[in-house]
Design a protein that fits this description.
Elements: H1 3-22, E1 47-53, H2 58-74, E2 78-84, H3 90-100, E3 125-129, E4 135-140, H4 145-158
Parallel strand pairs: 1-2
Antiparallel strand pairs: 1-3, 3-4
Length: 167
């Protein structure tokens, strides 16, 4: 029997085992979200408040000052992110965001997984994502600082039980 064949068979088998076992626990890596300047958005373990908006959406324009104020008041515990509903080039989204006076980060592209939620069919829509990256709630229609505070408070009160199940 050829000793090189034995080495090849054993080496191939070991490689397959390493590749199979090594990939079992590996979670798929998510590419970082980029803002309109091309910088990676750092969530810092905060709750995400993700707002879908569009230039043609009058209620979206009315809601922007409320989102700005909510973000200013809660930036230590919440990261407000904007997503333009229309698939536009980044420079057009940047122009619209500046025109609307958006003070919170706007993503350059919609995250492909959208936290397991379907794409909103009504604008504005605001998703609440907990600090562990799990979708918790969607608010439809224009929001106020008070309605956003209430939703955040309810999310923080809900918490998780000792089995890690979040309400």
């Amino acid at each position: 029997m050829n000793p090189f064949r034995n080495i090849w068979v054993v080496g191939t088998w070991l490689l397959l085992v390493v590749l199979t076992v090594g990939g079992c626990d590996a979670a798929p890596r998510q590419a970082p979200w980029l803002d309109l300047e091309g910088k990676a958005v750092q969530t810092g373990g905060r709750v995400l408040v993700v707002n879908y908006w569009a230039e043609w959406c009058a209620p979206c324009r009315e809601e922007i000052p409320e989102l700005n104020e909510f973000y200013r008041q809660n930036s230590e515990r919440v990261l407000v992110l904007g997503i333009n509903f229309d698939p536009l080039p980044v420079d057009r989204v940047r122009t619209q965001a500046e025109k609307f006076g958006i003070d919170f980060p706007v993503l350059a592209a919609e995250p492909p997984q959208r936290w397991g939620q379907p794409r909103p069919q009504v604008l504005p829509s605001t998703l609440f994502i907990d600090a562990d990256g799990q979708w918790r709630r969607t608010l439809v229609g224009p929001q106020t600082v008070d309605s956003l505070e209430k939703a955040l408070s309810e999310l923080e009160k809900a918490g998780c039980d000792d089995r890690g199940i979040c309400l």
